[in-house]
Design goal:
Layout (H helix, E strand, L loop, with lengths): L2 H14 L3 H12 L8 H7 L13 H16 L4 H7 L11 H9 L5 H22 L5 H18 L11 H17 L7 H19 L2 H17 L7 H19 L2 H17 L7 H19 L2 H17 L7 H19 L2 H16 L8 H19 L2 H16 L8 H19 L2 H16 L8 H19 L2 H17 L5 H21 L2 H15 L6 H18 L4 H15 L6 H8 L3 H13 L3 H11 L2 H8 L5 H6 L1 H15 L17 H21 L13 H4 L6 E8 L4 E6 L7 E4 L5 H17 L17 H23 L10 E6 L12 E2 L7 E2 L5 E4 L20 E5 L10 H13 L4 E5 L5 H10 L2 E5 L1 E3 L9 E4 L2 E4 H5 L8 E5 L17 H8 L3 E5 L8 H13 L10 H15 L5 H4 L2 E5 L1
Parallel strand pairs: 1-4, 4-7, 8-9, 8-10, 10-14, 14-15
Antiparallel strand pairs: 1-2, 2-3, 5-6, 11-12, 12-13, 15-16
Length: about 1100
């Protein structure tokens, strides 16, 4: 059958039968065997004889269908029978989903985008021939068919972006046709919004290819017009809102106008809200909304945005079935959002999940797919980010390999290639710092220079590329000392800072990098202008109102270092800035492990700042900083229980809401909100927790705006801290590489007493800790969950050496300055608040043991206790003074590595001492975690005799081993026991602590204190089973001997004399057997 015959038949059919499309498809099947089929599409596209039409509009519709159908079937190689088999019915509406079926047939074809474009152009040509001549009578029919052809088939290639147009003239041709059709169509015509939307898409596509700003500006105008002309309730309204939102987001990426990203989010949210669940387009709308929310977060750092973004894209992924062509893109978007949130909050779960999702996106994407380089790049960045956090070389190697793979398959003309080259350059620079291979830093600089070369001036990527090049040049300068590198680095970074608008978080890091370069040059050349400029850049970054707390803290630390090196007058201001930021880094909205992860290496910042303040004779300031910058998590938990009676008298609703939110946060965000019965998924729970923390922050700021509440929950000043010394001296020992000092608070003094410790150094204290740990390990008392009568304790000689050195260089100078005497009848109370490695050394037992002609140890001068903070010693409202005494003894000898028989004897001693007092006993099988926790709420005194263990990998999983389960530190600190007074922890390692968190008191005893027990007896390492009952018996005998209600404030005294008696009665007792017993609290 010839083409001419085909035309004649289709024209005849159209005149005789409205359902002519069915017959046309049958004709196509017959044409399948024709030799002419191979050249049919090209021939049809070349035919432009106006005479064919003869002015007869009735010919247009079948002619278009014929052109379109033949061209498509020719391209797919004669598979028309597949299309026909997919159709369940033929009728007037058959053309409505023709584009969908064409997409199914063409999907996966190597020339898919080109074929879609060619089909579009062939289909549109006849329209243009008619429209160029005159407006036909059946204009409505033409527009309806045209809109279907263009939106179905040009839209199919939208996910391929500019890749769908191999030549600029292709997209130019489409835009010319669309502009003509749009201009000829009146605004009140129902097809006008569709024409405008299609035109806008084409303009946006050309912008992505060529970068002409006018195109995206015009696209947004057309999108807005399309949305405006589409009535509410129209089925295409969500689609047009979505398209408008995408274009606004694209312009935001170019111009970084915040109004654009706000409008983008608004348009995309409207699209999502108007689209019912189950609609096939909803996952796409959700994904696009997530992208815009993520972009806005990176500018404004509103945590609600990134949490919302993650939830939206997670929903999109969940709604997208496996095998769907959009699944990889949505997985990649999810990974990118998780990566962004990790960079702000630092949750390891986020970065691990980001890597998993991005790897899945890459794995699901076939080679040759135009978006595969993007997915590879995102995966590479995630590996690099995780490497910076965890330091695994496998991550940095994987990151570099993925980024290189992305670049290898990306042409230089691709607009994202400079960005990917930049990421690769940064990754190579990072690996160079780790491995020191010069080729890495040289390749890094080469990649970054190439990225800049490929990037037009004024492009939004330019500042970031210049910044990264400056960093790599600085890194090479530090290695090779080539002044050309440092000068070039400063020039590039200065340009990066200048090109970055004020108010953008990225400016903070670029200011810091510039300051670092200026300091490096100052160290070489000594120019004062470099020093001044360095301080200016770093102080601006540290004091920035935008940017992540971690970035600001890094800038503040660099400022401290630079001010020290250059002798700048801003040194103490830099220290104060750093101290104020540390609590923000460990924000309440993060999980406790994440907060601990952030705080792990920040203790030295606080100690160094205090040392500098002391050097400037600002001892009061030093003490305030040590209180503010240490025990961050401890303070946060205590503040969640702060009474609000005064606030309630002024703002009762605000006070009640603050209490309610604080209670939920104290329970780890697990509590059921009274305003909602919704059960949250594990993915939603952290977001809910952060939202609660953010609301609490807002309420606290609102409270501070009230008269007389300006200092509400702010760090305490010295005059308030000094009240902690009412019952005895409080001595804070600061250990810094700069110097070591004691700062003492004495009752009645309005300033801190400074006691220099010139013979104590940070290096020596660290070495003493190492030696003491080795001693404990060799003596068998560092083992996990050991309370064993068979353990052989030794090490007296090494122990005495360490205790003597602590006495000579630390304790004795302090006692002398405090004028303490050795009168046994008037032993004063004193509290040690120690920092750094001292937290793991037995200061409470320092002294001279066994030296001829000399004696003396701290027990002769004072009754000693420890405290993690000064403020924890301050009096607070306590309902327990009116609650009758009720004692709980929980004894479990068998839930551990070994049986501890003397716990039975310990229980009998306690029963004997308590006699007829209210005493609850949970023994063996009764001592379950659930029963113990329940009775802890009803009893104000507690004695636990069982195994205990400090978890070295995850401190909040340290636990007391009860019958059938563990009572972990994590569970203990969530308890709120307002009537609690005293706890005796006759178990191992209950105040052992985490050496990586020396400033945070992460141990069971600390957890009990947080739960409400203001006085706690605990152990620093494992104890002997035979000795524990003797200490407990004498302890209770002393507390209860007057027959009155026992006073928890006498617990330290009772322990002091109990241990003293043990030493006197057990002549051969080893030092490590009595040393572990300590007192914490009031």
């Amino acid at each position: 059958m010839s083409i001419l015959l085909f035309r004649e038949i289709t024209v005849e059919l159209s005149a005789q039968d409205d359902h002519f499309l069915k017959d046309i498809f049958h004709l196509v099947l017959e044409l399948k065997s024709s030799d002419e089929l191979v050249d049919r599409a090209d021939l049809l596209s070349r035919e432009s004889n106006p005479g064919v039409w003869d002015g007869n509009e009735s010919l247009i519709l079948p002619e278009i269908v014929a052109h379109f159908t033949l061209s498509v079937f020719a391209e797919i190689g004669g598979e028309a029978h597949q299309l026909l088999a997919l159709k369940k019915s033929y009728g007037p509406d058959l053309y409505d989903d023709l584009g969908e079926q064409v997409e199914i047939l063409l999907d996966g074809h190597k020339n898919y985008p080109d074929m879609i474009l060619k089909t579009n152009l062939i289909a549109v040509d006849p329209f243009m021939q008619v429209l160029d001549a005159e407006q036909p009578n059946n204009f409505d029919g033409l527009l309806r068919l045209y809109s279907q052809i263009l939106s179905e088939n040009l839209g199919v290639s939208s996910s391929y972006g500019f890749e769908g147009f191999r030549k600029p003239e292709d997209i130019n041709s489409v835009i010319k046709r669309e502009q003509l059709l749009a201009s000829l169509t009146p605004d009140d015509h129902p097809t006008k919004p569709s024409l405008l939307n299609n035109l806008a898409f084409s303009l946006r596509t050309r912008f992505e290819r060529l970068g002409n700003l006018c195109d995206i500006e015009d696209a947004i105008v057309q999108h807005q017009a399309a949305v405006t002309l589409t009535p509410d309730g129209h089925p295409d309204k969500p689609s047009r809102l979505n398209s408008h939102g995408i274009s606004l987001a694209i312009r935001f990426q170019r111009l970084e106008n915040l109004e654009d990203i706000d409008n983008s989010v608004a348009q995309l949210e409207a699209a999502v809200n108007l689209t019912p669940d189950g609609h096939p387009d909803k996952p796409g709308w959700l994904s696009n909304l997530a992208s815009s929310l993520g972009a806005r977060f990176q500018c404004l750092e509103n945590l609600n945005d990134i949490d919302h973004a993650v939830s939206q894209i997670q929903a999109a992924v969940n709604l997208t079935p496996d095998g769907h062509p959009d699944k990889p893109g949505r997985l990649s978007n999810l990974g990118a959002c998780l990566l962004t949130r990790f960079q702000r909050l630092g949750s390891l779960d986020d970065i691990d999940n980001a890597v998993l999702r991005l790897q899945a996106a890459v794995d699901l994407t076939s080679d040759g797919h135009p978006l595969k380089p993007k997915w590879l790049s995102n995966l590479g960045i995630s590996f690099l980010t995780r490497f910076k956090r965890l330091g695994s070389l496998g991550d940095i190697d994987n990151g570099i390999a993925r980024l290189q793979a992305a670049i290898d398959i990306t042409p230089d003309s691709h607009p994202s290639k400079p960005k990917w080259l930049s990421h690769l350059g940064s990754s190579l620079e990072t690996r160079f710092k780790r491995l020191g291979e010069l080729r890495d830093i040289d390749n890094s600089i080469a990649r970054l220079q190439m990225a800049i070369k490929l990037t037009p001036d004024c492009h939004p990527y330019q500042p970031g590329l210049l910044n990264n090049l400056g960093i790599s040049l600085l890194t090479r300068f530090k290695h090779l000392r080539n002044m050309g590198d440092i000068d070039n680095a400063i020039a590039r970074l200065q340009a990066a800072v200048t090109l970055t608008p004020d108010g953008y978080p990225e400016k903070l890091s670029r200011l810091s990098n510039l300051g670092s370069c200026l300091l490096a040059r100052f160290k070489c050349l000594g120019r004062s202008k470099d020093a001044d400029a360095c301080i200016d850049q770093l102080s601006e970054a540290a004091l920035s109102p935008v940017g992540s707390p971690s970035s600001r803290l890094n800038a503040a630390r660099m400022w401290i270092h630079a001010a020290s090196v250059t002798k700048h007058t801003s040194l103490l201001a830099a220290c104060e800035c750093a101290i104020s930021i540390i609590p923000l880094v460990a924000w309440l909205g993060l999980s406790i492990p994440d907060r601990h992860q952030h705080l792990g290496k920040l203790g030295e910042v606080v100690r160094d700042a205090a040392a500098l303040a002391i050097s400037f004779r600002q001892c009061d300031k030093a003490l305030e900083w040590l209180e503010q910058g240490r025990s961050i998590v401890w303070t946060q938990i205590l503040q969640l229980r702060t009474p609000v009676d005064q606030l309630r008298a002024v703002e009762p609703d605000l006070a009640d809401r603050l209490l309610h939110i604080s209670s939920l946060l104290h329970q780890g965000g697990q509590g059921a909100d009274i305003q909602s019965e919704h059960t949250r998924s594990p993915e939603e729970e952290p977001r809910h927790y952060r939202a609660l923390a953010k609301e609490r922050d807002d309420i606290v700021e609102k409270v501070r705006s009230l008269p007389k509440f300006r200092d509400f929950l702010k760090p305490l000043k010295l005059h308030r801290l000094a009240e902690a010394a009412k019952e005895g001296a409080v001595v804070v020992i600061n250990v810094s590489e700069r110097r070591c000092d004691a700062l003492a608070l004495l009752y009645g003094m309005d300033e801190a007493l400074h006691i220099p410790l010139p013979n104590l150094t940070s290096e020596r204290v660290t070495q003493l800790q190492i030696e003491f740990n080795a001693l404990l390990k060799s003596s068998g008392v560092r083992q996990r969950a050991v309370r064993d009568e068979e353990v052989e304790v030794g090490g007296d000689e090494g122990c005495m050496k360490i205790l003597t050195e602590l006495w000579d260089h630390l304790v004795k100078p302090v006692l002398d300055s405090l004028a303490f005497s050795t009168d046994p009848d008037t032993l004063p109370r004193m509290w040690w608040c120690v920092t750094g490695p001292l937290a793991f050394l037995p200061i409470h037992a320092a002294g001279v043991y066994g030296r001829r002609g000399s004696s003396g140890h701290i027990q002769d001068y004072a009754i000693v206790s420890y405290t993690p903070t000064i403020s924890s010693l301050l009096e607070r409202s306590d309902a327990s003074v009116h609650k009758p005494f009720r004692h709980l003894s929980a004894i479990e000898p068998s839930s551990g590595a070994s049986y501890i028989p003397n716990t039975e004897k310990e229980l009998e001693y306690i029963r004997c001492r308590l006699q007829h007092r209210d005493h609850v006993v949970l023994h063996k099988a009764d001592a379950t975690k659930e029963r113990v926790m329940k009775e802890m709420r009803d009893c104000n005194w507690l004695h636990l005799a069982c195994h205990g263990t400090q978890n070295p990998k995850n401190s909040i999983k340290s636990a007391l081993l009860l019958h059938g389960g563990k009572l972990t530190l994590e569970e203990i600190i969530r308890l709120d026991l307002p009537h609690a007074e005293f706890a005796f922890l006759s178990a191992c390692q209950t105040m052992m602590g985490d050496e990586g968190l020396s400033e945070e008191a992460v141990h069971i005893a600390g957890g009990m204190s947080l739960a409400g027990y203001r006085s706690v007896v605990a152990t620093m390492w494992s104890i002997e089973d035979a000795l524990a009952p003797k200490v407990a018996d004498e302890f209770y005998a002393r507390l209860l001997r007057d027959g009155e209600r026992p006073d928890n404030r006498k617990a330290a005294e009772a322990l002091h004399f109990s241990v003293k008696k043990l030493r006197e009665e057990e002549k051969d007792i080893k030092m490590l057997s009595w040393l572990p017993f300590v007192h914490l609290g009031v």
